[in-house]
Amino acid sequence: MEEIGAMGECFIVQYNPDTRWTLLGAKVKVTGYPSLEVCLFDGLDRLHALNASAPTPPPQDTTR
User: Fold this and answer.
1) Distances in Å between the alpha carbon of 22 and those of 2, 5, 8, 14, 25?
2) Into how many domains does the chain fold?
3) DSSP line for the chain
4) Domain containing 38: what range?
5) Each residue's pLDDT tens digit, 43-62
């Protein structure tokens, strides 16, 4: 998985080509999406909503 990055509280969001997004931590702000703030329990719904409008990240090399 490739780290996308986050601001605040040392939590990160990672891009996973299988599930599209993996959320780690309780509260994050994703770098490049300053208006996105997610909590662990409702993060997936909000991230799916983001996926609908966000540009698709480039394919990642998962063989390393």
Assistant:
1) 10, 12, 17, 5, 10
2) 1
3) -EE--EESTT--EEEETTTEEEE-SSEEEETTEEEEEEETTTHHHHHHHHHHHSPPPPP-----
4) 2-53
5) 455 554 455 554 555 566 66
Give the pTM: 0.15
Contact (Cβ atoms closer than 8 angstroms) between residue 58 and residue 45: no
3-class DSSP string for 50-62: HHHHCCCCCCCCC
The tokens describing 37, both together, are 């703030």
Q: Is 58 inside a domain boundary?
A: no
**Stretch 22-48: mean pLDDT:** 49
In a domain, residue 46? The reply is yes
**28 inside domain:** yes
32 located within any domain: yes
